[in-house]
Amino acid sequence: MNILNYDSYIDFLRAELERRVRNNPQYSLRSYARDLKMSPGEFSQILNEKRKLTAKGALKISEALGLSEIEKKHLLLLTQDLKLNAGVENGQSKSILDLEYFKVIEGWYHFAILNLSDCVGFKWDIKYISKRLGISPIEVKAAVDRLLKVHLLKKKNKKIVVEKEYVETPQDIPSGSIKSYHQSILEKASTALFEQSVNEREISGVGFGFDEKYLPQVKKEIREFQD
Questions:
Q1: Other C-beta atoms within 10 Å of 77: how many?
Q2: Quick one: which of 117, 155, 184, 214 could link to 108 by a disulfide (CB 3.0–4.6 Å)?
Q3: What is d(CA 224, CA 226) in angstroms, rounded to the nearest whole number?
Q4: May I ask the CATH class of domain 3-78?
């Protein structure tokens, strides 16, 4: 049973229980809770929507069901009530994505999909995006579902549109997820350095010296330039 086809963890858990009961009429809710390493009472409350499934509980269920990394992230996403802190800067709508939720879309291709949507000839087609970005159709579908969940995309008149002009994470806060994202970007650049022609890439650097006490101001000016 593919969890990527569900937009509710309750629906997924109930469908999985029904599947097990069909295979074994003697299978019970107590058996299900045992297999998921949860107490029957706690699990019953979750299924009856009297208790929310926590991120910790989602990870426990993921391990018990042997979910893949993509499926695990999807289940984790379904447990979250994601929100963006919106604002306006330099005439553009700007949103800050909480670090708690950035880990859900830390894969480089999430933002690449948003960038690709600005290109002439772009179409919201899984095979098209898969080919352009060099990732699997499964990764594309999962990424689009996550972007919809965190409100970076939205459905309008049965079509998908980009919700925000640009998004940031909080600055100068240590985060394993942000480090993983930056590492993936650096790896893409490293690969391009050796595999793409000079006509297809632009990688350059500049060095200069300054007093370290001015580092905060330098970082501020670099960010303003990027904006």
A1: 22
A2: 184
A3: 5
A4: mainly alpha
Single-letter amino acid, residue 164: K
Q: CB of 77 within 8 A of CB of 62? A: no
What is the distance between the terminal CA atoms of the chain, rounded to a whole angstrom? 43
Q: Which fold has domain 81-227?
A: Arc Repressor Mutant, subunit A (1.10.10)
Ranking 15-29, 42-56, 142-156, 207-221 by mean pLDDT, the lowest is 142-156
Contacts of 148 (CB under 8 A, 6+ apart): 154, 155, 160
Give the tens place of pLDDT for each residue, 197-225: 989 888 888 888 889 999 989 888 988 88
Query: Cα angle at 49 between 142 and 62, to 5 degrees?
Result: 40
Looking at residue 181, its amino acid is Y
pLDDT tens string 84-136 = 454 444 455 555 555 555 666 777 888 899 889 989 999 999 999 999 998 88
Scanning the chain, the segments in alpha helix (DSSP H) are 9-23, 29-35, 40-47, 55-65, 69-78, 99-102, 108-116, 126-133, 137-149, 176-195, 215-226
Q: Strand, coil or helix: what is 53? A: coil
Query: In whole angstroms, what is the distance from residue 147 CA to residue 104 CA?
Result: 9
* Structural domain spans, the chain: 3-78, 81-227
Check: CB of residue 50 under 8 Å from CB of residue 41: no
Nearest by Cα to 9 from 42, 41, 55: 55
